Amino acid sequence: MSNSTAPKTSVGLWLLLAVSFAAAFVPAGTPGSITLVIGLMPVTFSMWHFIRWAGARTAWLSFLAVVVISFSGEALGVATGLVFGNYYYPDGPLGPLLLGVPPLIQLQYFAMAYASLMVARSIGGVLTTAARGWWLVSVSAMAAFGMTLLDLASDPWHATVLQQWIWRDGGPYFGIPLHNFFGWFFETLAFLLVVQALLNSKKALAKMAEVKPRGFWLQGVLLYGTFPFTIALTPLIQGAAFSQANVDIAVAMVCVALFAVVPLWLAALMSLKKVSSTS
Fold it and tell me: Which of 20, 90, 96, 98 could form a disulfide with 226 if both were Cys (CB 3.0 to 4.6 A apart)?
């Protein structure tokens, strides 16, 4: 990328990141077309940032890996109950269904995966270098834990309160089976391992080693913060009628977001001091 286009790219990424944070303030009842566009901002940011980080080929192959593996896991899970537990998606809340799964949700998974990977690779010190062997597995596992924490914080509200997906048999965690979180961890670990392998190609490593604009790494790690920020504000901004059960769920969401997700995010932000970046 030429020096003349780098500042424009940086500004564009900052704008997308700002809209991603602002998405937390979208009130209930906002037209679906508007919420869809706003909801795609983290996805657009992730792809743009990924291309700038490791190249277009690696970014699009990684996107394909996340979408195919997560959709296959969801379709198998809905059909058999083996992956996440006995659940289904109702028609409407998350868009049209394909094999019982709303494909639009896979786009959000890509943004979550990229944000979690930025956090894990920042903490692991491999934002500009290769992660191989057990280090590759360890960094992938940390990113998978980062995604699972987001699921732990947000699932009760979206499933039990909003019923965007429904557990037929309920479960001990605010109506959700523990099976779900183990399934989520191992599914995310599977596609993150594929993404990490793609990042070890010669072209990807050469692109990653290029000097990036000032603030580039900060942008990538800040993306992860949009998720706990939104999770913590969702019950207040988009809240349903606050029965006692819903209050309990809202409190649990905020606690997991603040005391589990945010510390991981802060650790990644603190680790950025080790990354050399110039304007």
Answer: 20
